[in-house]
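Hi R.,

As promised, here are both runs. First protein below:
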Amino acid sequence: MKVPYLKKLRHLFEAVPAWIAFFFFHYVLPFKVSTAFGGWVARTLGPLYHISNRARSNLRKCFPDMPDGQINKIVSEMWDNYGRLAAEYANADVFWNGKTLHNIEIQGIENLKRFQDDGKPGIIFTAHTGNWQMITLAAQSIGFDLTQMYRPANNPWVDHLMLKCQKLAVKSVITKKKGGPKDLLSLIKRGDHALLLIDQKMGEGIAVPFLGREAMTAKGVARMYINQGCPLLPARSERLHESRFRVTFYPPLEFKPKGDLNEDMYNLLLQINTMIGGWVKERPGQWLWIHRRWNDS
């Protein structure tokens, strides 16, 4: 079925500003100017958009005792992070030029190296905190190329731009549509490694607490750990100041299945959600609260 004319027109109007922003961020503005400008625009205009009400609602439900002033501060920080991230996505070579890593400090590099050299396939999981693309760049700095699972944008022109930016920072991408889960399973069976962001709502997942509220959580990583013996390595990106980051690679998860698949998946995903929830609590302004992470978002 062809996309209706009006929908195509709407997609075009949505895509033009994104492409203009990419052109200026990547080709015109100096890097520090582009990130500062992106942060300023986002934190100035973002809180005014209706979608920010979802972020405020999510924060109130997760932290019912938090004052409104603190909630608004977190929403402003979230938009600042998002605006800077947009400029950083267009300039991955500033952080990694193929030889030298800049503005990224790495903790737990020994965990990543062991994960790379253990002779097994593996999944590095993370969340939408800081700038998660710094994880792939940190991995490349030791010669470790990851395949990233990518969720396509609904707008095809925006999606094309997002893929263009993704490929500035990651060598291989598979999408969640068009057989993405099967491609991921094939990748794991070949003995390769993937990076997954696993903090988004999944309609086909199972309900597992996240920040104290039941959240539909994807089962894929739990199935691969339990059924395929696939190690899971947590990785976290934190924005320290402006466009300086810390990437932390934690030891692989330790979990002993008890033989009941559904119970084992639930308990493993609870362990993962608890870890990611701790990251969010430490730096709440660096997580995307505008996600529909919960059914009542």
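And here is the second one, sequence first, then its structure tokens:
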Amino acid sequence: MTNLLYRTILMSTPLLLGSVAEVFSERCGVMVCAIEGIFLIGAWGGFVGTYLTHNAFIGIMLAILCGTALSALYAFVTVTLGQQQVVTGTALNILAAGFCAFFQRVIFGVPTSPLVIDTLPILRIPILSNIPFIGTILFSQNIITYLAYLLIPLSYYVLFKTSLGLKIRSAGENPVAVDTAGINVTKLRFLTVLVAGSLGGLAGSFYTIGYVGMFTTNIIGGRGWIAFAICFLGNWTPYGVLFGTLAFGLADALSIYIQAVSTSSYFPREIVIALPYALTIILTVMRSNLRVPAVLGIPYKKDN
């Protein structure tokens, strides 16, 4: 049970980062539908930076830079040019997959054995990590996990307790009023998407630097879309997405645990692998009373 709950916290880390990123951008009125591609290019950037320099910090910085760059392209097309967000996101997800596969081959060729890097070390918090049961689960994680959970109260404070948060939320509810107040809605949305992209890039780097220690083109496996769904299920609030990520983290950890211990040929492993994705569908269908931002997904043009 301790190991399962430890992995729940671990596996929820990138989902938490990605869903908080979506909360910020969608509260501002922009759905970052390129989140799967941002996760992937962040994972690739993190791996390449760490492998070439043997420095995980540089890998994380490159992952954030890659995620920010892809989100900047997405923001330019959808926010500045006002193009359709779902179509643009789908195109950039495909672009990111091709980009990573191509440059992985260009940089490393066709290796005869898998390329691996050292994953982030476990940072045990003094005294707290010695608490029975809880210490192992909560206070013996890596740095990205700690940052992800510290992000929850910080993002809540920014969104709901500061003037910047009020501007972001207003841009997703009534951009005309925001524009009338002298605030550049396009600039605000663009910058918010960049922040979301940087968090998404960091989330992607977790899979290569913080967990697997290697890169494959299918390493994300749709988890970017799960983070996207968690934003909806959490009603666009940081604490709402926290509970959602823990549920999906548990499903992910449970699927890995079952695959590791199950030897029965009568229980298809495909069903176990599909567990987190099935949970996404079930919870989405069951969810009601969604407080959707009023102009979510609708480009804003000053002429309107």
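A quick note on the second one: The beta strands are 123-124, 140-141. Let me know what you think.

Best,
J.
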